Amino acid sequence: MPAEIPDVLLTLILPIDIAEAVEDLLLARPDLVRGFTTSDADGHGSVVPLVEASELVTGHSPRKLIRTVGNETAMRNLMADIRTQLPQANIYYWLVPVIEVGKL
């Protein structure tokens, strides 16, 4: 029996102006994404461009946070799709192992 591909958590941090495009991309790939969660976030730090006057005053830029869990191969394929369809998107991401997934 082949080894099972482990689940990973994919977290995406992206500018709010491309959030809908990324959400649509995820929704268009039910073969890779079973579901996802979005929330608002604030981007801080030297890698976050502050453009609007309000961002310069507050010191942060609005971002969207998207999280989804799936097998590592699916998540890497999803990232490849995002890179291809949104090459200049300025998305920060990470993949981390998931110990357990369930529903209560």
Q: What is the level 1 CATH name?
A: Alpha Beta
CA-based gyration radius:
15 Å
Q: Strand portion, in percent?
A: 25-35%
Helix content: 25-40%
Summing up helix and strand content along with how strands pair, one would put the structural category as alpha+beta
CATH architecture designation: 2-Layer Sandwich
Runs in which pLDDT lies below 50 for 5 or more consecutive residues are none
Subunit organisation of the chains: single chain
In DSSP terms, counting alpha (H) and pi (I) runs of 4 or more, how many helices?
Answer: 3
Mean pLDDT: 86
What would you note in describing this structure?
The protein is an alpha+beta fold and 104 residues long. The chain has one domain: Alpha-Beta Plaits (2-Layer Sandwich), CATH 3.30.70. Helix content is 28%, strand content 32%. The chain has helices at 19-27, 53-58, 72-85, and strands at residues 7-15, 37-43, 61-71, 92-97. The model has no long low-confidence stretch (mean pLDDT 86).
